[in-house]
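A common beginner's mistake is to predict each chain separately and then try to dock the pieces by hand. The better habit, illustrated here, is to supply every component at once so that their relative placement is modeled jointly.
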Amino acid sequence: MSSPTIASVSVDELRDIAKRVRAHIVRMVAAAQSGHPGGSLSAVELGVSLFWNHLRCDPSRPDWPDRDRFLLSKGHATPFYYSLLAERGYFSTDLLSGFRTLGSPLQGHASMNAAPGIEMSGGSLGQGLSFAIGQAKAARMDGRDSRCWVLLGDGELNEGQVWEAAMAVPHFGLGDRIIAMVDRNGIQNDGFADTIMRTHPADMFRGFGWQVIECDGHDMAAVDQALSEAERPHEKPRCVVAYTIKGRGVSYMENNPSFHGKAPNADQLATAIAEIELGLK
Amino acid sequence: MSAPTPTSAATREAYPFGLLDLVEAGVDVVAIDADLSVSTMGYQFGEKHPDRWMTVGVAEANMVGIAAGLAAAGKTAFIASFAAFLPGRCFDQLRTSVAQPKGGLNVKCVGSHGGITVGEDGMSAQAVEDLSLMTSLIPFDVIVPADFEEARQAIVAVGKTTRPAYVRTGRPKVPAIYGRDYRFEIGRSNKLREGSDVTLIACGILVEAAVKAADFLANEGISARVVNMATIKPIDREAVIAAARETGAIVTAEEHQTTGGLGSAVARVLAETIPAPMSFVGVDRYGTSGKWDELLGYFELTPARVAQAARDAIARKR
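With all components supplied together, the output reads:
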């Protein structure tokens, strides 16, 4: 389905954009010497496919009332988020170098309205799906057909509020307006998710009355297909569980819990950029 | 359904009437409850406007997030629960999702059953922290109405701003202080008695106790001013400064702990302007079960205690 507000680009083009987004992510975190590269890199394919081929948006009109909302519930993945917004044209890529510095709109965790395209404040986990319910309820009241796409982390699924909201979405019949996406990278702040708090994202969402669509979160064609499937009308709300690798695209960050919230040094940055140029293998 | 002017009604009973007034005035209200709507009285609004009301089950955090989303989409969102749970159960959501977006989102919180007069349910249901928590959220207005009419007007007043706000309502029926001719304004206190020796500044259910305390003191030849300080934040600085300048001693009385509520707000104004001897009446311990009027006695939220606090403050005048 295409519309003037969807870029509709090929999978090859999406892969090129993903390379640029990954390079922004590592450069931003390296420049700030702080931030969250691991969970940014794991979500790149989801974000790129969404922002170019599925999210109804107009970067020149960020306040367009009928736009789809992208809600970053895993609010620490700001290098990912800001890179997407800049590449999509919400603001200049020049802004990215100011990430996390005094006076920059690009705050460490997403701050609503600080820069164009930032739809909610994040940083305290578990709040995006609830926010989406309010947005979706308002859209239904006002006869607007905008939808909410909510990106959650798998560590974030530990938060009880996620499940308060997960039970409410089908209860209120908002499945045609809210699509959840889980970046299932298997690592949270303190280590591997299975050792910190084991979750079963697909089974848990199914148990709460959702239809779950699973995909390889780094196979761009598969991700793009999964998001298309999620958009199709269905009686249940849909949750895309994307199986991903934390730090994907940079060998020393991949599946490495220490790069959840750590910056690369200068040598590591050079390695990262070289690897990202080669693309995902 | 137009609002009555009852001689005795609970402030929580005014909540649905305030909402109806707002809808009538063209405000795009959506109200949410969390399985306590028969207590907050939100259900009465839901019966009139089912399209503008929802209940989310026992899930206060989700309720706050939904309200934030509604507000971000242009609605005036009201949420209600016991003051023990809103803000007690969802402070982080209020902070991150509502207070921190630039200027704060247009979400109004109504904490019913505030203070210890919820009664028999005991300490877990008795909020003595809600004003401390809500005054700490930077963009929020914080209001504690004293009777039905003031509560109805407070709901209307916060609904007509775009700022986030907290309004505390109470469970027991209290005597009417005001009629329909009263005009409540956010940040404006109301002087109920003139006086020159001491000023009794109260909010909520303690306003009535302060008036009675002024009667006691009058019998002793002490002239006590009584101020209903319904808005805790922003506090009516001019009224506090005038009280200090003209009466020289201050008592605050609130159904809340004395840290972070009315007393703290008044003390700050005095410290910054005209320091004056001051006494605090409040509840600085957790509650217990009992009938609400018994508890007022048990916790000494009484005219006698307010009068004694006034004598203590006057004795410290220099």
